[in-house]
Amino acid sequence: MNRDWLEKDFYASLGVGEQASVEDIKKAYKGMARDNHPDLNPGDAEAEKKFKEISEAYAVLSDPNKRQEYDQVRAMGAGGFGGFGGQGFRVDDFGDLFGSIGDIFGGFGGQRSTKGQTYQTDLTIAFNEAAMGVETSVGISKEIFCEKCRGNGADKGTALHKCNICNGSGQVASNQGFFSFSQPCNACKGQGSVVDKKCSSCKGYGKKIKNESIKVKIPSGVDTGTVIRLRGQGGEGRSGAPDGDLLVNINVERHRFFKRSGADLLLDVPITFIEAALGTTISVPTLNEDISLKIPPGTPSGKTFRVKGKGITPKGRRTGDFYVKVGIVVPEYTRAAKRELQKFKDKGYEGDSPREYLNE
Description:
Elements: H1 10-14, H2 22-36, H3 45-61, H4 64-76, H5 95-98, H6 101-105, E1 119-125, H7 127-132, E2 134-145, E3 160-162, E4 171-176, E5 179-184, E6 193-195, E7 207-218, E8 227-230, E9 246-252, E10 259-261, E11 264-272, H8 273-278, E12 280-285, E13 290-295, E14 304-307, E15 322-329, H9 335-346
Parallel strand pairs: 1-9, 11-15
Antiparallel strand pairs: 2-7, 3-6, 4-5, 8-9, 10-11, 12-13, 14-15
Helix pairs in contact: 2-3
């Protein structure tokens, strides 16, 4: 087993729960890898560090055998050393090496230092907002420590006592074959202590629900599937530990006219038969301005024109291009116009039939 895994929470790195499926893990990794890839964030040391972190997490959690081994290490609390002399062991056996387990985890019978929980939420934004970036907000409900009892669950003036089930450790041993795993004590909920009288505000739970509106800065060029991490906006950390993070999963609404392919912007524009035949200059909208597009004489329906640098500008990347595909529409002509078209046809100016190949 890998002893380095003791210090790492791969689930938190990818923002998924311990019961996440392989598909959930893969989806989370792809979104975070895209946001933190060194090629897309040149010179950003923090992004490079994050990319390495999530890559290691994905390498372990996407492999069933490695994931099982990693979960065993986490369950034991100090696993990954392979045992002593081939004999089974418990977490308590490491007391001789490190003093006491209480010294490692902050002492028993009190509040342990625990990083706050990572939360996830979904955010739907408009096509234009995703393309150009926007600052908005998301509403979440998260747990905070009760102000009255400061998270210990005891009513004012009452005392905390060491749990007599786990002897204040907060953990109880569970034998499973070769290994003896430790798990949170049910009697004290892993706290190592019990109260004489429960807090009247939180009913002894130690936490309360708080509704918050959190600002989110959406960078330009995001697309559906992008995950934005807001550090420190998740659950509260215990006993000085850092707060958890908030993961915002982005969903982009469809636009009525525009489509996109990566950073490129796509638009279908109708033109008349006369405009296609004789040529013209038309005004075409982009996301933030109108541009002039020259239609040369004899333009066929389905012709696509490329306008460089008028697409979407993702953060830290080049601006995409704008592709305009024209389609010829046939309007209702007046009788006079139809007569003129018939004369045009009778003079033999319509050219070869586009259906000649059907007679071959």
